[in-house]
Amino acid sequence: MKWKVVRFGAGSLAAALLSVQSNGAEAQQFHGLTVGTYAPCDFGCTPFPPVTVSAAEIDNMFNAATNILRDDVDGAGDADQFCDVSLFRQQEVEPFMAGDGDVDSNEDFWNVSEYGSSYGHTNFVKIVRSITYCGRTGFFEGCAPIGPRNSVVITEGAVRSAGAGFVLAHEVGHSVSLGHQDGSPENIMYPYVLSSAHGVWPWQCSAYNAPVDGDGPGYNPFTPRGPMDATAKFPQDDHPRMDFSGVSIEEAAHRTYVDLVPAEVADYYGDEDVAVLTRMLHDPREADHHAKIAQLIGLIASGRDTRHTSALLELVKSRAAARDAHASATISLGYLAHRGDHAAFSFLAHHARDIKSPVVAWAIQALGLSGREDARAELSRLERDADDDEKSARPGRARRLFRQALRDNDDVRGRGLRAYYGR
Ligand SMILES: [Zn+2]
Predict the structure, then answer these.
(1) d(CA 257, ligand 1 centre) in Å
(2) Could you tell me which residues come within 8 angstroms of residue 397 by beta carbon, excluding any fewer than 6 positions away?
(3) Average pLDDT of the residues in 370-396
(4) C-alpha of residue 128 to centroid of ligand 1, in Å
(5) 187 SS3 class
(6) Where are the alpha helices (DSSP H) in 101-178?
(7) Which uninterrupted H or E stretch holds 35?
(8) Does domain 249-420 have CATH number 1.25.10.10?
(9) Average pLDDT, integer, range 376-385
(10) CA 171 / ligand 1 centre spacing (Å)
(11) Which of 29, 155, 187, 280 is buried most deeply by CB count within 10 Å?
């Protein structure tokens, strides 16, 4: 087993410096979008195309987020108010390199997060290709821990999506210390952003307008430089149940889910809906939604129909599919393996062993999510091999990924996938 292949990442992610303005005066500076630091890529690295979002697409996202925050949907009502804040790009979008563009572990997340902090810039928004770890393993469109200002990370798929403004407004909300609002689907801090979720309350607006305090509350405001606090909490503990009654499967596939596609979709849909979803996977007009569709298939499918597994495998192998669709489909194979699908398990076990596979890291994560005994045995064996090869004091990326997957595996086996996702 050769884990010490060292290659250098050749891609770049994008970052933009985001500014927030209120009442015409600059209240705080966010730094726009960036992706990556130039780090040796020693595991599962594939030459990857750089993030290709344009400055115009990023500006559209900032404008949409500003409009959502400034909108007063209910007039004199108390569910929403005009929030006098503007989010805009302060400087050129710049490429950055941190890791390989796919955020798939806690270490990865903080590595990407930290970019820009050594410049004293604390409001970079980073654009990456995919996020499969945000406090827990899954598929995410955006991620931001509560507090640190420099930690807003968004996928390029989300930037291009119709829900981009909601994703940014929500994640920036986390970065200015706002947590989730479980009981208020109309609020911007509801965990799953709906197109009706424009709501901003006065105290939330004050948080958006608070002056920059280094890396967020609890950090020294006079020393915004230096390493990020990697112990900041991800907004994962609160998770309201989402009601899909009366929502067609097509509509569910077109929604924006900021944090996760909620696991309770399984209560509302069945294999006949998965048949509709697999047809949507073959429709190029649905390409922007393929990553979400793959999540829905993984969460809903009973694991008894091999055509569902085939549809996901096809997506993973498709050269036409976007990187985040590959990530989502691989993670979803873990859900099917959890429900006993052997083909899904075999695929994951094979790719978890193959350091050259473009999906190796996601396959390892998915084996964790499968919660299976045989997956655990495989992960332990691979971790031992990685240990044998790595003599350095600091655990390598491979070993950290295996450890994270082993923790997930124990967790899912112990309490089930639904409880792992807070349901
Ligand atoms: Zn959130």
Answers:
(1) 9
(2) 42, 43, 44, 105, 107
(3) 80
(4) 17
(5) strand
(6) 106-114, 156-160, 164-175
(7) strand 25-35
(8) yes
(9) 92
(10) 6
(11) 155
Q: pLDDT tens for residues 116-167? A: 766 555 678 888 889 999 989 999 999 998 887 778 899 988 998 888 999 9
| Ligand 1 center–CA 256 separation, angstroms | 12
Q: How far is the CA of 68 from the centre of ligand 1 (A)?
A: 16
Residues of the chain with CATH 3.40.390: 7-209
The token duo for 159 is 């930037």
The rounded Å distance from CA 172 to ligand 1 centre is: 9
Measure 310 CA to ligand 1 centroid, in angstroms.
32
By percentage, how much of the chain surpasses pLDDT 70? 76
Cα of 415 vs centre of ligand 1, distance in Å, is 23
- The model's pTM is 0.86
Give me the helices (H) in 140-282, please: 156-160, 164-175, 202-209, 249-254, 271-281
How far apart are alpha carbons 316 and 306 in whole angstroms? 15
- Judge contact between 301 and 274, C-beta under 8 A: yes
Give the distance (Å) from ligand 1 centre to CA of residue 174: 7
CA of 136 to the centre of ligand 1 (A): 13
Residue, of 33 and 301, whose pLDDT is higher: 301
Q: From ligand 1's centre to the CA of 181, what distance in Å?
A: 9
CATH 3.40.390 describes domain 7-209: yes
Instruction: Report CA(380)–ligand 1 centroid distance (Å).
Output: 32
For 221-230, 324-333, 386-395, which range has the lowest pLDDT when averaged over its residues? 221-230
The residues of the chain that CATH labels 1.25.10.10 are 249-420
Read off the pLDDT of residues 167-205 as tens digits, 9 standing for 90 and up. 999 998 988 888 888 788 888 988 876 666 788 888 998
User: Helix 306-317 vs helix 271-281: angle between axes, to the nearest 10 degrees?
Assistant: 20
pLDDT for the residue 356? 79
- Give the per-residue pLDDT at 364: 96
23 pLDDT exceeds 50?
Answer: no
CA of 304 to the centre of ligand 1 (A): 33
| Span from the CA of 187 to the centroid of ligand 1 (angstroms) | 11
Please give the pLDDT value at position 292: 94
